[in-house]
Write a structure and sequence with these properties.
The protein is α+β, with helices and mostly antiparallel strands. The protein contains 9 helices and 21 strands.
């Protein structure tokens, strides 16, 4: 009999849960394209909304939230260029047709010269006689003695002279001379010859005085004292450039290596100082620091470099300097190197001995003119003076003007420094100071001379050499071509060619017209040259 509670029944088995997978139908390509398009539309709407809100809120924020004071812009640095002039012939102290003792037209004498307010002598004037056009009391051009003018009696006035005895523009009054009662005969030719022989040119008088002067050690010391003062004043424009490189030693410990170079302050604006330094100071440098003559330091900014000359320009903000430093710092004046002559006394400042703030004395031993350089010609000064081009050495004259910097790109004798003359590079320095790259074509130019033109060559600039992979070479210009036009300007002189080079801008395309030698005649070709940067 079975148990009423059903204890003999078998236990019910657990039924497994039915796991069903809900499968969504796959999207069609049309649905996917529609969804992507919808996302793009939403993104575009969001972008338009953001741009509209920015355009509306921007002016309001600038008007009410941003200060109205705008950041000052760096002023443009302007450096006047120099023009080479032909030196005037040496003055011999006498005028043609005159037996006077050395008055040249326009020279000042014991009287006054036009425009003068005193009775002093103008520079380069002789000691006796009167200026042309002056009233009595002196000689005029072509006179035979020191008192009478041609065609006048003793003590008479020269033609065009006034009766008051004053020179036009002068405040001095020359008393009128009274003619003596008796007239004298004009001197004969023999008397003129004797007067001429008795009168010495001023150069001979000075030379004789110098030869007879007994120089002492005190004189030598006084001259060097003056030079020392010039060098000390120029040293205020010399700075030390610290080229800092972060490196690791053998055990991976960080170390700091610093190279020291000399720099020259050559320009100053209301906001910045411009410093010329060797470009080697920038190689592998992590940071640059400038130390001034008083020991203060400041950071600098690289404005531009020139790979061909190996120089660079950096700037220091005046706002980073103390007032005491600003009072002591002075920029070197850029001189006119065209006026430098062989034998001139010069000084090197910067690091001529390898140590910054050193100096040396010497003189110009040779001047090389029309030296071919890429895209122009230059002048090199050879000076018998200590110099170290790698550390930065600058050449100044006896008035403290910067007339060049020492380079090691050219060979020279022992103890002779080769200097790039500053006048040919003033245009380059102006561009570098304003952060403008120096334009580059990559040719060695030479002016076609008259003799070359007579042989059948056209006037222009002969291409001695075309630098491989240079802009001119890549455009198709070859060695032996003659450049006759750049842009719309004809070029026949080196000065014209360099002026056109200075007007070009790196990155622009210049039209260069050349004449190329053919089988029977020269053929005109036109090239489009992409101007490079040095």
């Amino acid at each position: 009999m079975s148990d009423k509670n059903g204890s003999d029944r078998e236990p019910e088995r657990k039924r497994p849960f039915i796991r069903e997978k809900v499968a969504k139908p796959p999207r069609t390509k049309r649905q996917m394209a529609f969804r992507v398009f919808a996302y793009v539309i939403l993104a575009a709407i969001a972008g338009i909304a953001a741009g509209t809100s920015f355009a509306v809120a921007g002016p309001i924020a600038e008007r009410y939230l941003v200060p109205t004071t705008a950041a000052p812009t760096a002023p443009t640095v302007t450096i006047p260029t120099d023009t080479e002039t032909v030196p005037a012939p040496a003055n011999t102290g006498t005028r043609p047709g005159s037996s006077n003792s050395g008055n040249t037209p326009g020279s000042a004498v014991t009287g006054a010269v036009p425009g003068a307010t005193g009775d002093g002598n103008a520079p380069g004037s002789a000691d006796t006689g009167a200026a042309p056009g002056s009233a009595g009391g002196g000689s005029v051009p072509g006179s035979a003695d020191s008192e009478t003018a041609p065609g006048t009696a003793n003590g008479g006035t020269a033609p065009d002279s006034n009766d008051t005895g004053t020179v036009p523009g002068s405040t001095d009054t020359i008393p009128e001379t009274t003619a003596p009662p008796e007239t004298t005969e004009p001197p004969t030719s023999e008397e003129e010859t004797e007067t001429t022989e008795e009168t010495k040119p001023i150069e001979e008088i000075l030379e004789s005085a110098i030869e007879e002067y007994d120089y002492t050690v005190d004189d030598l010391n006084s001259m060097y004292t003056a030079l020392r003062g010039v060098a000390a004043a120029a040293d205020n424009g010399i700075v030390t450039i610290h080229s800092v490189r972060q490196e690791l030693d053998w055990f991976d410990n960080p170390i700091e290596n610093t190279g020291l170079y000399a720099g020259a302050i050559f320009a100053a604006t209301e906001q910045e100082l411009m410093i010329l330094i060797p470009a080697a100071a920038l190689e592998d440098a992590d940071t640059l620091r400038v130390t001034f003559a008083d020991g203060s330091e400041a950071d600098c900014t690289v404005r531009q470099t020139d790979s061909l000359t190996g120089m660079a320009v950096v700037s220091v903000g005046l706002s980073d300097l103390e007032e005491t430093t600003k009072a002591k710092v002075s920029a070197l004046t850029l001189g006119n190197s065209f006026l430098t002559k062989q034998g001139d006394v010069v000084m090197t400042v910067g690091a001529p001995t390898g140590a910054v703030h050193s100096c040396a004395y010497g003189f110009i031993s040779h001047i090389a003119r029309n030296v071919q350089v890429p895209d122009g010609v230059t002048r090199l000064l050879y000076a018998d003076v200590a110099a170290d081009a790698a550390s930065g050495t600058f050449l100044i004259n006896t008035t403290g003007e910067l007339i060049g910097w020492v380079t090691d790109d050219y060979e020279s004798g022992s103890g002779i420094a080769v200097v790039r003359a500053i006048s040919e590079y003033k245009s380059m320095l102006e561009k570098m100071s304003n952060g403008i790259p120096i334009p580059y074509l990559g040719i060695q130019p030479q002016e076609v001379s008259e003799a070359m033109q007579e042989s059948g060559m056209p006037a222009g600039i002969y291409v001695l050499e075309c630098s491989i992979e240079g802009p001119a070479y890549d455009a198709g210009i070859q060695s032996g071509d003659i450049i006759v036009r750049i842009g719309e300007t004809d070029v026949e002189k080196i000065s014209e060619f360099q002026a056109q080079m200075a007007a070009l801008k790196a990155g622009d395309q210049a039209t260069v017209m050349v004449q190329r030698k053919g089988a029977d005649e020269y053929i005109e070709l036109e090239y489009q040259v992409n101007v490079g940067a040095r």
